[in-house]
Amino acid sequence: MDDRSFVAGQAFILETKKYWTTEIYPALKQEYRDRVSGSGREPETVAEVADLFAASRLYKTYAWLERHLQRFKYSGRFGLAPYHAERREALVAEVQKNARPEQLDLAPDLEMPKYYQSVDIHQHPGGVWRDDFAAHVYERGARSTTPMLGGRHRDLHQRFSDQIADKVSPQRILDMGCGFGKSTLPFREACPEAEIEAIDLSAPCVAYGAASAAEAQVTNIRFRQMHACETDYDDGEFDLVTSTMLIHELPPKQIEAVFDEAWRVMAPGGRMVHLDFYALPDIFARFIHYGHARRNNEPFMAPWAEIDVVELLAARGFKNISIEPFAETDGVDFVDNSAWRFPWTTISAEK
Fold it and tell me: What's the start-to-end Cα distance of the chain, in Å?
């Protein structure tokens, strides 16, 4: 497929997603309020909200678009996967040419966990690890994950790293589940003197990250293929352990293992800060979020949202635990935002 057709197709999908975000979502929220008013009773569970929408054509339209716009984005006629598959050889060669050996540590014998292999997260065909060009698909797809941010999507990661850098000055940072480095490079900008270790299960992603760092002439980041639940770092090695959009993609037992590992590798007085989806202000928001989890192939999103994180971290000895909504851009209303958004949340604690 030619570049012009691909760009036009993706632009059409994005504009439709914006309409879904700014027009259909608020209309659905208003329909919910009307149905609650008509029933005379506020729902207390996600199942009760689903019952309210059982006969709703608007909700069916909302859900269909959420599922299939994502499918078209990745696998459709002008999808990310077929476009990049046609350019596989050149894309992989570019990464191999740019990545410096001292900044990339691959583990070809690393066994992929069953939960990681069992579902195509985000509807990404084959997941972010199976194809050698998967990181390119993931990077291009991430540009429109939050449709209303557009070209400012990078600001989300910069806001997060700047927020942390305002409070701490780490010398050693561990970025868990780093993907292709979209969260890692902003940490380098916010903490230019720190040494950063970035780890992920996906070989294509860490290779892409290493190539991006080399292209940016960044030398204080090393990308490694490694499981966040079980690293080879020494006890107390890091001042800061962080992740962005990792926790909700893990089963509950692996979430506990990640927190245990973070505790182990953190130095006394060190800080752990994760940016993820968690703070849901009401039952309607929870219903929308759980529906998104099903439609976007996110099987562990709902179990994560139901964990008592404060209790979980306190049991492991963490102190100064904080769960706070996070504004991905200016003007966010955490309780009643006019457009659809992810429930961005920072989860932070100290050792």
Answer: 52
Which residues neighbour 262 within 8 Å (Cβ) at sequence distance 6 or greater?
Answer: 174, 176, 241, 272
The two tokens of residue 77 are 């006629």
What's the confidence (pLDDT) of residue 159? 93
Identify the domain containing residue 41 by its residue range: 1-351
Given a contact cutoff of 8 angstroms between Cβ atoms, the answer to whether 337 and 325 are in contact is: no
State if pTM tops 0.85. Answer: yes
Supply the Cα-derived Rg of the chain in whole angstroms.
Answer: 20
pLDDT in tens, 35-67: 999 998 999 999 999 999 999 999 999 999 999
Q: Indicate which CATH number applies to the domain containing 251.
A: 3.40.50.150
Strand partners, 198: 175, 223
CB 56 within 8 A of CB 27: no
* Pair of tokens at residue 58: 């608007």
How many domains does the chain fold into?
1
